[in-house]
Amino acid sequence: MIFLILLSLLHAEDIKKITICVDPNWKPFEWIDEKGNYAGMGHDFLEAFLKDSNLSVQLYRTKNWAESIEAIKAKKCDMLPMAGITQEREKFLNFTKPYYYAPYVIATTSDKVFIDDIRRRLDKTYGVVKDSAVFDDLKKLYPGIKLVAVESVYDGLQRVSNGELYGFINMAPTIAYNMQEHAIIDIKISAKLSTGYKLATAVRKDNTALYKIMSKLVDKLDESTKTQIEMRWLSLIKEEKVDYSLIYKILFVFAFILAGIAYRHFTLKRLNRQLEKKVEEKTQELQKLNQELEAKVIKKTKELIHQSNYDLLTGLPNRVLFLNRLEKAIENAKSHNKIFGLLFIDIDKFQSINESFGYNIGDEVLKAVSQKFLTLMSESDTLSRLSGDELTIIVENPENIDTLTQLAQHILELFKKPIIVGKENLYISVSIGISIYPRDAHTSKDILKNADAAMHRAKEKGRNNFQYYSAVLTKQASERLKIQVSLLQAIENKEFVVYYQPQIDIVQNKLLGMEALVRWKKEGEMISPAEFIPLAEESGLIVEIDRLVMDMAIAQFSQWCKAGLEPGTLSLNLAVKHLESDFFISMLRKKIKKYNFDTKRLELEVTESDLMKDTQKVIRDLHAIHALGIHIALDDFGTGYSSLSYLKKLPIDKLKIDQSFVRDIPDDEEDSAIVKAIIAMAKSLGLTTIAEGVETQSQREFLYANGCESIQGYFYSKPIPAKEMEAFMKSFNA
Fold it and tell me: Is the confidence at residue 237, as pLDDT, over 60?
């Protein structure tokens, strides 16, 4: 029935001869042989299609594929028997159902590494056959790719071999066939792409009758014939090193036997055929094993390349890849006379998250933060994880410096809402440092160093902000280093002195006690605590300084008590770093014993934000200290993020209301409400309160009216040395 329909169509349209155009240099798919005949896989498929029809074929000769495309456009031929399907060609051609598919691959010289992602190699130049389907497909998938048209596959491979092109893109069978035919030994296949040739028969759009005939003939092709044709041609591209010496020996024996025993001739022929079949089967097994091994090697190579360049936790580029891209950014900016920016980002108090919630939660936070950053970045930007909670963003080709400012602001805005990790709602903030090439530095090392310095300046400014690098910052960093060295010398030379600030019970109007505060007297000049305390805390020297203060203050306090004065309670600041040591409590016991100090007169102030570090150990040690009879106060209350349930676990006796809330009371309604809430909460928990930073009568009256028992601040006295404190005690207690 099908043949009758075809015959009726042929009769109706009077189609008897088809003129075809082909690619004369596309082995093994199609080419023109030395006798001028059409050859290759395409020829065999065409013969299979036309086997039961009365159509004849004539060839229109062209020099290359580009001429074949032009010829069919000019109606010099009717059909392309084997052509890739593209959107551009569908404008003037009708395509049958595809009957063969092969992915594109990239051929490079053997010294090149495997290409795991062509998008990372778009700056390289690739050759493709002129007017081939590769052009349209690659331009659509990779708009920025650099393509160069070549006359033929062999031409493209030669130009890769000569170093004119980085790679050549076509199908693996075509590349392999040409490599073998022309003995090209320095070429390898370095990548397989996600798209490829869909090969079909193409007919001019104005020849509908022929298109209908060819569509039916292509649909009629059975799978066994298709497989035979593919095996016939594609097996030719496999080149294996097979040891035929055993075969030759066997054949020699067979030949000897044949010469001696003629009657065994047919038996030996049969055995020979069986042996050849086994050899062929073995060869195919070896080819399959070789392909599987090569695939495993390629996969493992890609995995190793990826692992060496990407962070395992976040999937972001690691320090190695970051530095590589930073160098490329410098080269690009230098050659195009442009700027670029580097943002150095550090998650504020990230260690507290790890210590409070566990490292698993910390890892999830890092992944969540990374994903938030990616939502703000353009394709040309690079987000990397250097180490721990340090991330960087290379911003290439910003319009101006304001672009960097806007990005930094957007990053800060990202964290106004909490990050949800499991059941935890975590409020995160980041500090950002920004350096600009070439304004701030000309080398990758200096750009990174300057961005890091700017980030630390952002932390000094109170965290949760961004700072640009400047020459002033470098000077400040140098001065910080000098101060650190001077601090070490000051500890050795005992240059620190203790000042005392009275704490007054405003209910009974009596001296409640005093807070011991450290001061640094260097060469007769007093250095402000604001200049050296943050650096001392950061460097860990605060532990030694606190021990000196503790020793001097307890000794002084003991003298006052022996002299019959009534100094009340001595409040000492306790850095949580002390509790990281297993020897602090034993050291504290020794000092108490040394001065025969009444522990009821001693109060240790712990900063609220510090309590979130190493939570379990802090709670355990504070209970041990409290068991000695020592009072514990929570300093700067309201500025941290402790919860009521957490406070209940701590042996706290007193809450110290931070001066930032006291400063604007009673005029500021919000601060007034906060202070009232703290006082009320303290009473509900059975704790006393003390307000610091009290300077005015109205502040004192507000606190008294709302139930705050004691205050500390300039209203009564600024921090004063021991002699002045002794005079203050005598006059106030009198």
Answer: no
* 319: amino acid identity, one letter: R
Q: Any idea which residue has 């048209």 for tokens?
A: 149
Helical H segments across 358-436, by residue range:
359-374, 401-414
H or E element at residue 525: strand 525-527
DSSP string, 685-731: TT-EEEEE---SHHHHHHHHHTT--EEESTTT---EEHHHHHHHHHH
CA distance 97 to 219: 7
Q: Is the dihedral of CA 121, 125, 127, 132 positive or negative?
A: positive
Q: Phi first, then psi: what are they for 469, rounded to 5°?
A: -75, 150
- At 608, the pLDDT band (50, 70, 90 cuts) reads low
Per-residue pLDDT reduced to its tens digit, 578-595: 777 767 888 889 989 998
Q: What share of the chain is helix, strand, coil (3-state, %, to 5)?
A: 50, 20, 30
**What is the rounded distance in angstroms from the CA atom of residue 718 to the CA atom of residue 727?**
14
Nearest-angstrom CA–CA distance, 89 and 92: 6
Radius of gyration of the chain (CA): 42
Of the candidates 725, 282, 683, 156, the one whose C-alpha atom is nearest the C-alpha of residue 497 is 725
What 3-state DSSP class applies to 82? strand
**pLDDT above 70 (res 374):** yes
Count CB neighbours of 92 within 10 A.
13
The residue length of the chain stands at 734
